[in-house]
Amino acid sequence: MQINGLSHAQAAQSLSGVQRNSAGGRAAPSDHAQSAQATDQLDLSAEAQLISQTQAADPSSQTEGIRWEKVNALRQAIAQGNYDSPERMSGALDSFLDAYA
């Protein structure tokens, strides 16, 4: 076995400016410039959407232990853009540092 060191390693590449086609194939470069503020996007499969709709329509199908009022409050905060705040990020960082310091 031969080890050549890090000089041949490639750095991680950014995914910004890359779009995936809906068929799940290879990624293609984006035609538009990157916006000033990046946004996250989540695309659910048809199956996931069906499961979500079924669970919303039938409360008995909901998994025990999931606090749906919390889930829905978080979904609403994210949709309104209120979830990430400097105070929340500072608290999360403090908790992380307390756990690993």
What report would you give on this structure?
The chain is mainly alpha-helical and 101 residues long. It has a domain at 66-101. The protein has helices at 46-57, 68-80, 86-100, and strands at 18-20, 27-29. A two-stranded antiparallel sheet has the order 1-2. A hairpin with a 6-residue loop joins strand 1 and strand 2 (27-29).
Class from secondary-structure proportions? mainly alpha
Find the count of extended strands (DSSP E, 2+ residues).
2
Mean pLDDT: 74
Strand order of the largest sheet: 1-2
Question: What does this entry show, briefly?
Answer:
The protein is built from three helices and two strands; from the N terminus they run ββααα. The chain is mainly alpha-helical and about 100 residues long. It has a domain of about 35 residues.
Question: What's the arrangement of secondary structure elements?
Answer:
Blueprint: E1 18-20, E2 27-29, H1 46-57, H2 68-80, H3 86-100
Antiparallel strand pairs: 1-2
Features:
101 residues, mainly alpha, two-stranded antiparallel sheet, 40% helix
